[in-house]
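During the no-cost extension, the postdoctoral fellow (Dr. R.K.) reprocessed legacy sequence entries with the updated structure-token encoder. One reprocessed record is reproduced below for audit purposes.
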Amino acid sequence: MATTFMNVPIDPGYPLCDVPAGGCRGRQLPASGKCLEHASTSERAAYFASLDSGADVDHSGTRISRADLSELRAAVTDAGTGRATLGKATFHKAVFTDSADFSRVDFTGRAGFAYAEFHNRCDFTDAVFRKMARFTGAEFRRAQGYSAVFLRTVFTETVDFRKAGFAAQAEFDQAVFERLALFQSSKFETMGHFSRCVFKGVTEFRNTVFEDAVFAGSSFEAARELGPMVCTKALNLVEARFHAPLIIKAAARLVRCERTIWDSSASLLLRYATVHLEEASLVSPFAITHAPTPWGGTNTAESALIAAHPTDSAYPKIASLRGVDATYVVLTDTDLTSCRFMGAFHLDQLQLRGRIRFAQPPTGWRFSGRRGLYRWTARRTLAEEQYWRRLNWPEWHPFVPPSAVQNQPGTEDVAALYRQLRKGLEDAKDEPGAADFYYGEMEMRRHDVVDTSRWVRRLLWLYWAVSGYGLRPSRAIASLLIMMSASLLALALWGLPNDSPKAKTTGTLPTTGHQLQLTTDTPDPRLSLPYAQRVTWDRIGKAAPIVFNSVVFRSSGQSLTVPGSWIEMATRLVEPALLGLTVLAVRGRVKR
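Re-encoded structure tokens follow.
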């Protein structure tokens, strides 16, 4: 007769305990009409006496106390080895009311704990499952400490933890999974420890929910996909090793991959995560990509993650690439605002695709007594420059970690980082992106007092002031207009004579038959007007063609005073250069 248990429709498929009060769902003992909980003392003694090492047991639906389990262990313990051995062990829907000690138990047959309830700590330390182990829908309800311990447990066949629930910490450290390991839709309320585990078969963590998931030091020999999973705190893969091509799908606050070894290609599809990749070992393409939408089955858990940090972007954030060979790294739609590039190798081969976010300078106009009124132009900057700027300009970067101050690279180091990243973007034909990194490189050179001489720094300052290193069209145009206006005023004040001198021809009328000789002299242009009469619209109108001709490196041919000739020569040198910088700056912003 079908009934329900734990709100799950079931058909027991076994004889139920016939306790007079009714309502017990435990399985009858072989020689008794009662379950283990309700059997008499003599019935229990007879049952345990019938067992020996390797016996099959079935206590489905039974409430099992610590004393019951201790007697069961004693009955199946081999006197020679001192190790408890069970054949086929069935505890489906069993309720363990006290702590359940299965440590060092050898399960030689199938082990079934589907939909079992563990009200206190359960311990499977050093246990061995030689056949399939089922923990489907099991509930590990202890709320403090460890609710389940599978330390050094060996699963030689498939193990199934699908839809299992762990109310407290679950420890699988150093466990060995020889075949398929299934954790789909499991829920770890706090931390799941999988440190130094060995996963030799396919591993499934689809739609699994963790608070903390720790796989530090674990080895995945055949896993092709981890996730989708949600970790409300961290996914720890420190010093783990992945032997086969892998896809990891996770929404997490933190993903730690320090010193992780990736022996094959890997793709991390992440949401919200801050990724630490320090000293990770890569030998094949390694991609980190933003997953644009939640995966089906994780929406509820991800909603809790969003509620805890409502202002955070879903784009994955890279914290550091120190010690990583960037030859193999591909970043797509990621946030690099706080990424530390110092110490990475082959940054010129780093591939940046899609929408990549870098830190921006402070916005708005500012005033200081030493610098006057100033503002920072928008561009993409590295975290290393942000930290360096913060030491001199308080408006840069809201927070500087102590470690960043202690290990702050010099300006020459930051310039080298910009140079390598610029080369990578130029190779990818991203000219506007490369322009920002060129600007950063020149800024670091301009402020470098160790390897850059004073005269070079002054030249770089002039290059920055007049055109933003050939990258700021507005600044180059402003410099050209200022130069043209200054030239116009200078010509009006000192370059134009009072009026254009007229040629005068003189000579002597000879007698008949002699040649006529005439001499034409042009008087030197003179300027004797008082200053108040020099700046007039008429004189400015005469000076304007000279200035505009100088922009295109042409001579006007107009009479000028000696100072005016020098002014014209200077404008014919400077103004075409400023025009060229303007064209160069526009080209750098629009070229692809």
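Residues 505 and 520 are 4 Å apart (CA to CA). The first strand starts at residue 3 and ends at 5. The remaining legacy entries will be reprocessed before the final report is submitted.
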